[in-house]
Amino acid sequence: MAVAVDGPVSVPLPAALEAIAQDFLAMSARDRLTLLLDFSDDLPELPARYVGHSELLERVEECQSPLFLVVEVEPAQGATSSQDATVHLFFQAPQEAPTTRGFAGILYEGLDGLSVAEVLAVPDDAPYRFGLAEAVSPLRLRGMVAMLSRIKRQVRVRSAA
Question: Which tens digit of pLDDT belongs to each residue from 34-64?
Fold first, then answer.
């Protein structure tokens, strides 16, 4: 028997990203900004193998502050499909760009270590599920949407190689 659903059915987020979204949604807009700053502070530094090699990083032009990213896809032991490979994310953003760094930190915490299939299944509207539209400008959120888009594109390219 079919069950009627009011409104659009949304694709679920991966567990780690969903937990982050729930943390944000449980807070006031002001507290969401504080949590965003926490993610900014927790963004790992770029590994030494990428420092000074800007040609290996992709700039996300839509971000209001300079943000560069690179994705690595690590083959899974004994896996028969590239969809099982593990995704690793690396970001570079200036300390004086806390909002941009915060967005990168959310994506890092929510996606790093997932499989190719899991990352590619993340819905494109994921950046809008944190309740941040009430705390930051739509232009800034567009930067996070662009980050996710670049991550997924790099995952597709690297997992096909």
Answer: 999 999 999 999 999 999 999 999 999 999 8
